[in-house]
Design a protein that fits this description.
The longest helix has 17 residues. The strands form 6 sheets. A 9-stranded mixed sheet has the order 2-1-11-10-12-13-14-15-16, with helices on both faces. A 5-stranded parallel sheet has the order 4-3-5-6-7, with helices on both faces. Strands 17-18-20-21 form a 4-stranded antiparallel sheet, with no helix packed on it. It has 548 residues and is α/β, with parallel strands linked by helices. The chain is built from 17 helices and 26 strands. Helices cover 31% and strands 25% of the residues.
């Protein structure tokens, strides 16, 4: 035993489990009088936000929520969504943020799979959650406690579906003395579902340590100052808002909430509240670029945007530069807490032409500073590919900002971690400066407006139509959504079907955003063994889109 192992044990004075919950306590203690949340007419300081989160935590504890309990939330970007990100982890419970664009059967499946004990849902989604809860009980025998949120900023239809009302529940409970977090930083903080390409969605389980470190990385990557004013254009249900609920807390910043992501509302919030940071998929940046110039009038502060999702089009990066917005390109997946790599801007880049700057910024970049590894490996040999910008391999990560694994899915977990690296499934090259550039996706996933669409899921729906003999779904470039699904169809002999009929058929089986934007009735290329050659279809879709 080394002398440094003697009488030098961990204790309460020198060791604490890393959890982003601690950021909330610090900001309430140090910056309690500063603004934390803005939403319509509502304003909360950090002291008030911490108290509301502590009341929610107390209420959830009274409902039996504790370590390992799943709390599902179906919420837009509102103060209640922020508070859930603080209260649920404080109880060492697990937060499951539901995608507001999914259909009722899939929502029921996810809540059953993660064994949700409590659901917090906004009244706007009553028409969706009521049938989801009926399916959950009828097919799975599960009845979570349901808490309704009645946001004053929402004036549309929707009845309450739960047994508790959020504000009344908070008022009925004294706040916890402290938002403590876990005893073990390896404990689960969230479970987020990713569509994948085959079978049921996979539940990505993340831990407190990774969430803490990625929240720090966000600030360091972006060189964010204290007290940023952050606009919620990115849905917080996406990878827990890329960990930014906790980054903003760490810096004592202000959350500016938006129920609706529309150009006029975004630009008005930027002007009114002095927003200086926001994150979004390429589609949202395009909304800003294409907004009438008068809507951008009066925004005098420097605005910094972060973009991820489908590789951003060059036109988007150039367009943002031309209106004076500073864009940082990041890359990641749900399995690595959202962004875990960044196209770090070098000091020499501003001297390059705009087209070259666009090319440099369009790469997936290098690992976050607290991620231990990111590179391009040959998935068969696990050897790193040469940094020649030409040799293809698979992007892989390793380190503290990687998920625990897939919930109840050991086979997928083992496959994802084969060889001691997390396999992303994205094919890329390593350029001479060691920046990574994606060239293709080995998984047939289409990223449309920041949402993952499984081509196989869409194909399965198409194959249910009696007229369809063969089909294949691939991505085509889309100026609005980044990528959009296009379906190639071969019909059975003597059968007739129109694009409108197939669209209606798909709408009955899929969430709206998954329905192909276009149907092409033409021969589908196949190998001699009958395997569809999707790479040819991708090229066909890309060239046709360019012509159109």
């Amino acid at each position: 035993m080394s002398i440094y192992d003697q009488h030098l044990d961990r204790n309460a004075a020198n060791h604490a489990a890393l959890s982003p919950v601690s950021f909330v306590e610090r900001s309430a203690e140090v910056f309690g009088d500063l603004p934390a949340v803005i939403h319509g007419a509502r304003r909360y300081s950090w002291a008030q936000t911490r108290e509301r989160a502590a009341r929610l935590a107390a209420a959830l504890r009274a409902l039996g929520v504790g370590r390992g309990t799943t709390v599902s939330v179906m919420l837009p970007n509102t103060p209640e969504m922020v508070e859930a990100h603080y209260a649920v982890p404080a109880l060492n419970a697990v937060l499951n943020t539901l995608n507001t664009r999914l259909d009722a059967p899939l929502l029921a499946w996810q809540m059953n799979h993660c064994e949700a004990a409590v659901l917090i849902t906004d009244r706007e989604y009553a028409g969706l959650m009521a049938p989801a809860l009926r399916i959950l009980e009828a097919e799975h025998g599960r009845r979570p406690v349901v808490i309704d949120v009645d946001d004053p900023e929402y004036d549309g239809p929707g009845e309450r579906v739960g047994s508790h009302e959020y504000e009344a529940l908070l008022a009925a409970h004294e706040p916890l003395a402290r938002l403590e977090g876990p005893a073990d930083e390896w404990d689960a903080i969230a479970v987020s579902y990713t569509s994948g390409t085959t079978g049921d969605p996979k539940g990505v389980v993340t831990h407190h340590r990774g969430a803490y470190l990625n929240a720090v990385c966000n600030a360091a990557t972006w060189t964010m100052p204290h007290f940023p004013t952050y606009l919620w254009t990115l849905p917080m249900f996406h990878c827990n808002g890329w960990c930014f609920p906790w980054t903003v807390a760490m810096l004592g910043g202000t959350h500016v909430c938006l129920r609706r992501v529309e150009a006029a509302a975004i630009l008005a919030a930027m002007r009114e509240h002095g927003v200086d940071h926001y994150c979004a998929a390429p589609i949202v940046h395009n909304l800003i670029i294409n907004a009438p110039e008068e809507q951008r009038a009066g925004i005098r502060q420097k605005v910094r945007g972060m973009v991820a999702g489908a590789a951003p089009p060059a036109a988007m990066i150039e367009g943002m530069a031309q209106i004076g917005f500073d864009i940082t390109h990041v890359y990641g997946l749900t399995e690595v807490y959202g962004p875990a790599s960044v196209a770090v801007k070098r000091a020499s880049w501003p001297q390059e032409s705009l087209s070259e700057q666009t090319r440099l910024n369009g790469r997936q970049g290098v690992r976050y500073m607290l991620q231990e590894g990111m590179t391009v490996l040959d998935p068969e040999t696990m050897a790193e590919v040469p940094a020649d910008g030409a040799t293809m391999g698979e992007i892989m990560f390793r380190g503290n900002i990687v998920m625990k694994g897939y919930l109840k899915n050991p086979a997928s977990t083992d496959a994802a971690f084969a060889g001691g690296w997390f396999h992303t499934g994205d094919l890329a090259v390593l350029e001479p400066d060691r920046y990574v550039k994606i060239k293709d996706r080995s998984k047939d996933v289409i990223i449309s407006g920041g949402e993952n669409i499984s081509s196989i899921e869409v194909e399965d729906a198409l194959y249910r139509h009696p007229a369809v003999l063969s089909c294949a779904v691939v991505a085509r470039p889309d100026p609005k959504w980044g990528e959009a699904p296009v379906a190639y169809i071969e019909t059975k002999a003597g059968a007739k079907v129109t694009a409108e009929e197939l669209k209606a058929h798909c709408k009955g089986l899929l969430a709206g955003y998954k329905v192909p934007k276009e149907f092409r009735f033409e021969a589908i290329p196949k190998t001699s063994t009958g395997k569809i050659q999707k790479f040819q279809l991708r090229e066909r879709a890309k060239s046709s889109s360019a012509i159109e």
